[in-house]
Amino acid sequence: MSFSSRIPNFHNKSADERRKIIAELLHLSEDDVAILKREEVSEDVLDIMIENVIGKLSLPLGIATNFKVNGKDYLVPMATEESSVVAAASHAAKIARIKGGFTAVYSGSFTIGQLQICRVKDIETAKERLMAYKLELLEIANSTNEILCNLGGGAKDFELKTIQGNQDTYLLLHLIVDVKDAMGANAVNTMLEALKLRVEELTEGIVLLRIISNHATKRTVKVSAVFSKESLGGEEIVERILCAYDLADSDIYRGTTHNKGIMNGIIAVVQATGNDTRAIEAGAHSFAAKDGSYKSLSKYEKNAEGDLVGSMEIPLSLGLLGGAINVHPTYKLALKILGVSSSEEFANIVAAVGLAQNLAALRALVSEGIQQGHMALHARNIAVTAGAEGEEIERVANNMIKSGSITYDSAKKILDSEKVNKGV
Fold this sequence. Notes:
CATH class of the largest domain: Alpha Beta
CATH superfamily of the largest domain: 3-hydroxy-3-methylglutaryl-coenzyme A Reductase, Chain A, domain 2
Strand order of the largest sheet: 3-8-10-9
Number of domains: 3
Order of helices and strands: HHHEEHEEHHHEEHEEHHHHEEHHHHH
CATH architecture of the largest domain: Alpha-Beta Complex
Structural class: alpha+beta
Helix content: 40-55%
Radius of gyration: 25 Å
Distance between the termini: 55 Å
CATH topology of the largest domain: 3-hydroxy-3-methylglutaryl-coenzyme A Reductase, Chain A, domain 2
Oligomer: single chain
């Protein structure tokens, strides 16, 4: 399906108008549109997802426009409670389109599972025995998932390492599994369980932990884009962004917030599609510190034309099937809107959203300031909290923005003043 993700004035449409546009572009069914409009999820489905269900919590589901990744256009579903995230990602993607959009390269869907082996009397002999029986151990692991192996995935290798802890010297077996289009936690953990007894026999130790690692160093995306200096606001803005990036890469206090901005975009897409937000968040921040100090996940430089070049490498363990995705209709629909056919394509888009979000935040920080755009959207929330309804919401929000005071007290005063003028 070919279409343009460039939809002028999309943000000025009503929710019904936006649904109609998306449905026409992506050939969504009436049932799909009904899910977007009402998000009707039965309590039976919710009971499958978690324990002790008493209700459900809704989040706004928006669409980021303008994204072009590896030459293909995408409309990106994003679920978040934070104002300005969807708008910022869309705007940065619009700037990136001028120079061709985002280019992304996937390292492969390899996930690492850890076996912790304790009380090993002779570490070196244990390592030698494990390596000598590698083929047998891989066969045991793969016997647990015939379907995955038939698709070309499965346990492909393992690595051994020694960790000196306070309680013991631990031998770790890192099982490397190609999980294909799944996130992979269940498949990998099942393989590790199957290995336990044989590994204990070979090492004469005790296998304790058998669990996937979210430090997904073998499942990364490298993404990059060129942002024209004219669209960013000129050479001075480019230089300011470079200085802001330099601080993020040099100082953990700024670097943490800088990377949080990247995750604003990434987590919104991950959340919309029913993937594991905690695994993605943990993996990203550990990757930022993989060389011993916490660094910026993104990098920026200036090219010969004076344009800004942004790039990033980030681990992304994402799946198109399994878990909540199989049972929750909105997650399924979000993936349908995204239109991806593999976890590789999916991860490439998510990485592009993260880089776009970061660029938008940096541009705002070094120009008008992050608060101007953020608080303009936040003003509507304050107006509602103060009791504004219907057309009052925009009117109160606009008055607060003009006055420069976006607070609950200001909203109440504006509302009270309107009531007095109306004689209420």
